[in-house]
Amino acid sequence: MDFKVLGRLMKMVFKDYPVHMTVVAVCIVLSAAIGVAPAVYIETVTRYIEEGLLSGWDAVSGKILSTILVMIVLYLASLILTTIHTQLMAHVTQGFLHNTRVRMFSTMQRLPISYFDQNNRGDIMSRYTNDTDTLRQVISQSLPNLLSSGLTVIGVFAMMIYFSVPLMAVVLLVTHAQTGLTVACIGVIVAALTLLVMALSHGRAT
Q1: Which long-range contacts (CB under 8 A, 24 or more apart) does 193-202 make?
Q2: Can you give the three-state secondary structure of the chain, one letter per residue?
Q3: Cα→Cα distances 29→37, 46, 63, 152, Å
Q4: pTM to 2 decimals?
Q5: How far is CA 132 from CA 87, 139, 145, 198, in A?
Q6: So what's the pLDDT on residue 205?
Q7: 10 Å Cβ neighbour count for 152?
Q8: Nearest to 81 by CA among 91, 92, 89, 93
Q9: What is the Cα–Cα distance from 92 to 78, expressed in whole angstroms?
């Protein structure tokens, strides 16, 4: 991924739609934070249940109900925020693509005739169709997903540190070992299949 090009693209989108993109960024940040927050509430509900088993449900039933209501409100807020930023991004995407095509056509009108002689018509039209369609996918899907996923990962690490640093270290070590084992197994399987194909090809040749 060329982050320089990505940064230039984001700068152009923010320049065309500063208010919309600011609202989208705020909605994504809040949605990612809300997506991580229920882990704390689940731990709280579990603690209340343990207290209820020891001291009776009457003492903790109100606390459990209020915590569950807060979780429901958070999930509804996350749904509303996701809907808002999805609709705004759809509007931003269509408007930005229109502005991009206008800029491209304006620039193309100033190009010399030799440019059109040296480039095929299909290549020129592809910039207005295929290339702009790629921009649509990047702006409407890739950029929001990249921001949301990055914030979610940061939030998950923060929650892991909050609950237990040693447990986080164990999870990271296990994940690293699992990834290395998976890569090694895939390499062995690919090598074995390659040898098998070579052996079969040699058998047919003889």
Answers
A1: none
A2: CCHHHHHHHHHHHHHHCHHHHHHHHHHHHHHHHHHHCHHHHHHHHHHHHHHHHHHCHHHCHHHHHHHHHHHHHHHHHHHHHHHHHHHHHHHHHHHHHHHHHHHHHHHHHCCCHHHHHHCCHHHHHHHHHHHHHHHHHHHHHHHHHHHHHHHHHHHHHHHHHHHCHHHHHHHHHHHHHHHHHHHHHHHHHHHHHHHHHHHHHHHHHC
A3: 12, 27, 28, 9
A4: 0.68
A5: 20, 10, 19, 44
A6: 54
A7: 16
A8: 89
A9: 21
Q: What is the mean pLDDT of residues 31-60?
A: 76
Single-letter code of the amino acid located at 110:
R
User: Confidence class of residue 1 from pLDDT cuts 50, 70 and 90?
Assistant: low
What are the φ and ψ backbone dihedral angles of 110, each rounded to 5 degrees?
A: -95, 0
* Most confidently modeled range among 6-10, 32-36, 76-80, 172-176: 76-80
20-30 burial: b if 16+ Cβ within 10 Å, else e: bbebbeebbeb
Q: How far apart are the first and last CA of the chain?
A: 46
Residues 103 and 107: their CA atoms lie apart, in Å, by: 6
